[in-house]
Amino acid sequence: MAAITEKTSDRMTVRRVQIEGNRERYAWLFMRLSGVAMLVLAVGHMVIQHVLNSSTNLTLQFVAVQWSSWGWKAYDIFLLWMAIPHGIRGLFNILSDYVHNPGLKRTIGILLTLFVVATVIWATIAISLFDSAMIP
């Protein structure tokens, strides 16, 4: 919340407003940028996986062949980095409409942030360490 201090001298009013941080602004910006990035990445993923290749061919061997290249791993990791935080931030925005207690809202935000960090780290490690040579 902004604190406004008024000082009057003659006919001029000077107001100083303190803004409490930019976390919400950065979250808003992230949602817009990740949405645009996911539009390209997710549509590309759908076209590659389900249009150019038949969905019946999506097997572990197919993924192993794709992930034998670091380009495909990087593509999927970047999609993961955009999708998980974007979706969880959207969930937080929805929950914020219904949760009005600041302490509970902060607790939910912390839990969701921990979930995002753990999931992104875990999935990034799983994708990057995937060894296609181990698949028969």
For the structure shown, list the relevant keywords.
two-stranded antiparallel ribbon, 136 residues, 68% helix, 2 strands, mainly alpha
User: Strand content of the residues, in percent?
Assistant: 5-15%
**Biggest β-sheet: strands ordered side by side in the sheet:** 1-2
Mean pLDDT: 88
Helix/strand/pairing class, anyone? mainly alpha
Oligomer: single chain
Based on CA inertia axes, which overall geometry fits?
Answer: elongated
Tell me the radius of gyration. Answer: 22 Å
Largest sheet: 2 strands, antiparallel
First and last CA, distance: 59 Å
Q: Residue ranges: pLDDT <50 for 5 or more in a row?
A: none
The counted number of beta strands is: 2
The helix/strand series, from N terminus to C terminus, equals: EEHHHH
Helix content: 55-70%
Count of separate DSSP helical elements = 4
- Domain count, please report it: 1
Q: What's the layout of helices and strands?
A:
Blueprint: E1 3-9, E2 12-18, H1 23-52, H2 60-66, H3 70-98, H4 102-128
Antiparallel strand pairs: 1-2
Helix pairs in contact: 1-3, 3-4
How would you characterize the overall build of this protein?
- The chain is 68% helix and 10% strand.
- It is built from four helices and two strands; from the N terminus they run ββαααα.
- A two-stranded antiparallel sheet has the order 1-2.
- The longest helix has 30 residues, at 23-52.
- The mean pLDDT is 88.
